[in-house]
User: Fold this.
Amino acid sequence: MTQFRGAFTALITPMKESGEVDYEGFRRLIAFQIEEGIDGLVPLGTTGETPTLDEDEEDKLIEIAVKEAKGRVPVIIGAGSNDTKHMVIYTERAKRLGADAALVVTPYYNKPNDDGLIRHFEAAAKVGIPIIIYNIASRTGRNIPTPLMEKIAHIPGIAGVKEASGDLNQMGDVIREIALPRKAGGGEFYVLSGDDAFTLPLAALGGDGVISVISNLLPAKIKALTKACLEGKFEEARKLHYELLPFVKAAFVETNPIPIKQAVTWAGLPGGPTRLPLGKLSSASEAVLKTAMEGLGIKIKL
Assistant:
């Protein structure tokens, strides 16, 4: 099985001012990520504005990501839906187009019960591609508590979890009760932070890395932070953590991916506008973001 360990970027979807997807910009962004040493790519997640993309756009983005990665880094494709039938279709597409894994979010809005969640992830795993669970109650309305996560983790084909519960105690329980016993038995269950601010503490508890938003702009820095964490160099990791923290906060001053797309655009990389219903960054938030970027020595190219 492919290893899902290290620094992964939750890729934005660059767009032109007309609102069309900037496919050439997407290629450039992937090239930048790989040149900067990122460990993996995650297109078609929340940061990629997947709810506003049509299926033709998604198909092309997957094809580009897989082709540009060229097997150098794993590509995990967002394949979530609040309808199990559609989730299976998206997961099958990820497999067919050559992805290394599918990221399947807890079904949103429906708020499924335990039996429904188990069967949802069983359906995903039957497709035959590694499945990374995405646990983010702030967007889905449904947390996956550790006892239920343990049941889902025993489904063959479930490779790990992107943990964005915001609860460090829960993250520690998932590592202690699921990941570490699995590894002790010769298997794997990867636990990746879904929040940039938790990269260091999650790794200190025994986690495997991060699916990062701010690495769209700072892949080398996030790679260095994650590498230091995973090598147990926590003095170095703390220094990087605190250096990056003001920008982490600024990147979430408004709904993701509004700030990170603005930051990427200001830095001269392919970003562009967000699609409605995500609007423009407020002037107050712009000031916060600019200050954080300047603090890292990033030149703003207006």
